[in-house]
Known about the structure:
- By secondary structure, this protein is of the alpha+beta class.
- It has twelve helices and 23 strands.
- It has helices at residues 11-20, 52-61, 72-76, 79-84, 99-106, 108-117, 133-142, 166-177, 246-266, 300-306, 311-319, 394-405, and strands at 2-8, 26-33, 43-44, 66-69, 93-95, 125-129, 147-151, 160-163, 188-192, 198-206, 211-213, 218-219, 222-224, 228-231, 236-239, 273-282, 285-292, 334-342, 365-368, 371-374, 376-379, 383-391, 413-414.
- The longest helix has 21 residues, at 246-266.
- Bound molecules: adenosine monophosphate and glycine.
- Residues 219, 234, 292, 296-297, 299 line the site of glycine.
- Glycine is lined by residues 219, 234, 292, 296-297, 299.
Amino acid sequence: MHTILVLGSGGREHALAWKIAQSSTLRKLYIAPGNPGTGTIGENVNIAVNDFKKIKEFIIENNIDICVVGPEDPLVNGIHDYLLNDKRIENLTVIGPKKEGAQLEGSKDYSKEFMKRHKIPTAKYKTFSVKELNEGLKYLEKIKAPYVLKADGLAAGKGVLILNDLDEAKEELKQMLKHAKFGSASSSVVIEEFLSGIEVSVFVITDGKNYKILPEAKDYKRIGEGDKGLNTGGMGAISPVPFANELFMEKVKDRIIKPTVRGLHKDGIEYQGFIFFGLINVKGEPYVIEYNVRMGDPETEVVMLRLKSDLLDLFEGIATNTLSEKDVLLDPRSAAAIMLVSGGYPNSYQKGKEITGIENVKDSIVFHSGTKFTSSLLSNGGRVLAVSSYGKDPIDAVQRSLTSIKKINFSKMYYRKDIGFDL
Ligand code: AMP
Ligand code: GLY
């Protein structure tokens, strides 16, 4: 039996907690800091994800045996190393890589170097530091538009710029390198070749040697219908993804997943947890756009619906070195999630709007992303709720979420009605 602590407070963590709560080997589930949604299925603990000291004390006092790290931030900051550096919790299993492995997400240059070293298909690139601004400007003149500029470090999903105009690209490069547009995250900038295709998120769970593939998903990142307008954290997701057929997934496995896991092992990087491959399908050939060292949001809100296997059994596979013996069984149904966001998001928006009607939703699962409870349920972020549904195919699942959403309301609520439009 397991006592679990999930770190995080978004829809991803609510979906992970929802799945963990269904496990036959769960003794007790804690979520720190959690949200009103996770509070209905486990016990929320008021500790922030980067308060390592308090997290460790809580783990010791409550005999936690598995700690699941939801977001990338604490991983990149080294929470895994920190926790295991204490004899009292030597046997704790942390789901999420150590600091070195987390660099796959924490530094674009590190991940590009890793891919180059292990011959994993990705866009051609060059990295420039502050001192190399002039070389960077000259490099932009040599390559063709569109120009892809990426802040090396974590920039809360905002550090990637895609520009069509050379002068604009040069100006942005200056802003990033010289004027710290993304703070220290842009003290180095990766300039890479633009790849044209459709994106897909592929997830594995790994113990650093063996891996199991989880259901793939497609995230709809733009705020507007028809994939127009500003980038967001994700406005909805579907699974399965029709173009990620057997042939494509074989290529993903052979060219990307296997060389990545083998590469980690070869480089002596201990890695346990999730790997999120942000891929792009260029005329049937998969390329890596980015690695993330955690699950995706809102992808988790569909992936967990489609995962039939007991998630704690997979975590146990990591804890006891038996992952290779575990099976990932899938629900035959499709799934879709639609995000309800605050009007104005991803620009400025208001919080604290009363949310009504969730209790009337019977045919969908409502995951909380940015909510809080003070006498009533209030919005507390840009992304507020993820409404997830099963369906006979992804479009049917989207329709079911749309029907459920009609029952929910808060002032200036916005959502995309066209999730899955391109399928
Ligand atoms: P990233 O943070 O690296 O995932 O980049 C954010 C988004 O920018 C991706 O989801 C893609 O839509 C886009 N993007 C990043 N790199 C490229 C590229 N080399 N070619 C085309 N689009 C890209
Ligand atoms: N939905 C994309 C991400 O979680 O990074």
